[in-house]
């Protein structure tokens, strides 16, 4: 459980649930969906990533990755979206979002961690295929500032170093990221060929973890038509009230995506 001790002590006095997030972020979407599915009251702290509000010293003092989302629960700071939604579901027991069967529970975590472990492949695909990628790049001073602050996640730092380099991602790196994403969606499509949900017989954290990927990758023109069984699954989720409140109402497509 990625509970961190913030250096920005002001958040330790917050009462209730507070979410630092942005609209067009697959990781933030996960947390908002989980909060809505659980019927929880939460206070929004929306950050403008285009203005670098996630890269201030104040926010790095809350989340040492300088990314969204961050959940603060009565002063306790939790980072990493997969762990946040697991924390929410375990602490607040009504409207459970996990299977009761131990085998299914293990499969739920496998789906969740598959999404988390491949997040840099999704970012590589996104950053390579959205419109105006040059508008997403950081200048030399911004990168120097980011290097100084980003001491928590070396892989994320390496990602931004590569993206902001003169040459950007190589064709091989783009192909590798695409292949990883293709494998994930092929696995999902196979599962959904004879099941309504990714795990067990009910909507769960596994589905919550993956549905935002379709939202953000659609903006990058990912070929979802190659996976016909995803369509019914997707349509069932987007009809849920939680999707309307947690995704559609917050969805503003950016000209570039920074995180």
TrEMBL record:
Q: Which InterPro entries match?
A: Glutathione-S-Trfase_C-like, Glutathione-S-Trfase_C_sf, Glutathione_S-Trfase, Glutathione_S-Trfase_N, GST_C, Thioredoxin-like_sf
Tell me the ranges covered by the GST N-terminal domain, including all copies: 15-96
One Pfam family of this chain = GST_N_2
Q: Where is the GST C-terminal domain?
A: 139-259
Q: Membrane-spanning regions, if any?
A: none
According to the lineage, what is the superkingdom? Bacteria
* Protein name per Swiss-Prot or TrEMBL: Glutathione S-transferase
Query: Which species is the source of this protein?
Result: Vibrio halioticoli NBRC 102217
